[in-house]
Design goal:
Elements (H helix, E strand, L loop, with lengths): L1 E6 L2 E4 L4 E9 L6 E7 L6 E7 L5 E3 L7 E6 L4 E6 L8 E8 L11 E2 L3 E6 L1
Parallel strand pairs: 2-11
Antiparallel strand pairs: 1-3, 3-8, 4-5, 4-9, 5-6, 7-8, 9-10, 9-11
Length: 122
């Protein structure tokens, strides 16, 4: 099993920044990619960003390109999401997930964190 623990959420004004972290433990040798999803009230969970440990390729949703940056430390099994120029529509619970590859659908991921709330006020 793999355990994921997120941290770094909070309340921020529009235009501000937050940095989320997700640390993996357990059978981390089975992880080849780590991603962030988010879910706003009444909406489906959506892909935000992902990173592949092999090659370090990164992937972003169109809505966050140029504002968010995903990075990771493979040795520490930790992934980060730097969120800049935050907008009220970024308000959601942000979830970290891990799997064998980066895909844009939540159903491909077996391991999930508990989520961290990000609230952006206008």
């Amino acid at each position: 099993q793999v355990q994921l623990v997120e941290s770094g959420g909070g309340l921020v004004q529009a235009g501000g920044s937050l940095r989320l972290s997700c640390a993996a433990s357990g059978r981390t040798f089975s992880i080849y990619a780590m991603v962030w999803f988010r879910q706003a009230p009444g909406k489906e969970r959506e892909f935000v960003a992902g990173i592949s440990w092999s090659g370090g390729n990164t992937y972003y949703a169109e809505s966050v390109k140029g504002r968010f940056a995903i990075s990771g430390d493979n040795a520490k099994n930790t992934v980060y999401l730097q969120m800049n120029s935050l907008k009220p529509e970024d308000t959601a619970v942000y979830y970290c997930a891990a799997g064998r590859t980066v895909t844009f659908t939540q159903y491909e991921y077996r391991y999930w964190g508990q989520g961290t709330q990000v609230t952006v006020s206008s």
